[in-house]
């Protein structure tokens, strides 16, 4: 057993670290033993643990945990990029969220991470033409996590959604790599059009809490959208926008705002002010 565990650690140091954190957590709080064993230590790999977690959360009287787990297991075997994205999302949360102190936390406790991985499963089903099953996943993610993402939306890797409450992302939305957003963000349309009608968020964008980005507009890479803003027009790269409707108020403030998570606006004083 020890030799097999060492071999697995060499193949997957991230999973080995998660398992080490799990063992330490049980030693510190034995009452968590059942949950942590079933969620982490009973599984040999991250994809198996993730399939278990998603199926446990999304199961209902209409769809059993066993069926959902078989779907997730088959998806991870067929498309390894799903787990690559999950690893990138884990790293993003660990790096950017000051409340995340261990890699095991998002897997067990953070609904933003769990909701995004469930969305990725639904998106894979959508790409396979299994639209009704994808819609079911979307429905359950919305009911369980309060995150409503259409399975046709395209989302890159390294996504961090802090708090992840009341997130809405529409059907034709595109979100790039290494994007960060906070709760109550909407990437929506502006009417009843049924064509390409949702925002395109480029890499490295930071979207503040409560921001609404509406319509088929483009938000340039490494830009910032201030909390509570309503964005109705294209945003150039590396700029900060704020207000209702949002206007450019300055530069992004750093090379990678989605990583730094700096949401303070550095306003230039007017003439005559100190």
UniProtKB/TrEMBL annotation:
Gene3D superfamilies: Hexapeptide repeat proteins, serine acetyltransferase, domain 1. Pfam families: Hexapep, SATase_N. The keyword Transferase applies. PROSITE patterns: HEXAPEP_TRANSFERASES. Residues 14-118 form the Serine acetyltransferase N-terminal domain. Its EC number is 2.3.1.30. Pathway: Amino-acid biosynthesis; L-cysteine biosynthesis; L-cysteine from L-serine: step 1/2. One of its GO terms (cellular component) is cytoplasm. InterPro entries: Hexapep, Hexapep_transf_CS, LbH_SAT, Ser_AcTrfase_N, Ser_AcTrfase_N_sf, Ser_O-AcTrfase, Serine_acetyltransferase, Trimer_LpxA-like_sf. It comes from the Bacteria. CDD domains: LbH_SAT (cd03354). GO terms for molecular function: serine O-acetyltransferase activity. One of its GO terms (biological process) is cysteine biosynthetic process from serine. It catalyses: L-serine + acetyl-CoA = O-acetyl-L-serine + CoA. Keywords: Acyltransferase, Amino-acid biosynthesis, Repeat, Transferase. PANTHER family: SERINE ACETYLTRANSFERASE. Belongs to the transferase hexapeptide repeat family. This is Serine acetyltransferase. It comes from Flavimaricola marinus.
